[in-house]
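Form 7-S
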Amino acid sequence: MVITNDNRFIQTSKKELFMKSIFIAFDQGYYDQIITILNYNHVKGFTSWEQVQGRGSQTGEPHYGNHAWPSLNSSILTVVNDEKVKPLLEDLKKLDATSKLMGLRAFVWNIEDGI
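Output:
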């Protein structure tokens, strides 16, 4: 990498480095399994929110943390190299298939800049 006159980084190798963010929202019961999947895929950095509320867009039951809907979700945001996205999503999809009652969703965005 080289720093330009306006203090931007430019990738100098032939292989450009593309980064993606992956937002994972899931039933709290999946937390340890999600961490295991991240470790298996050599994903070290992430931010986690332990208690988030929500419900699935089609068949998901609400996770509101109240007396009527006591369960809660958790979420994780990680930024990874492009080549890690597909294997990570495949492993998350396998975990999601283990239960129809517990929810798990993952969304991928391009990272355009960062420090």
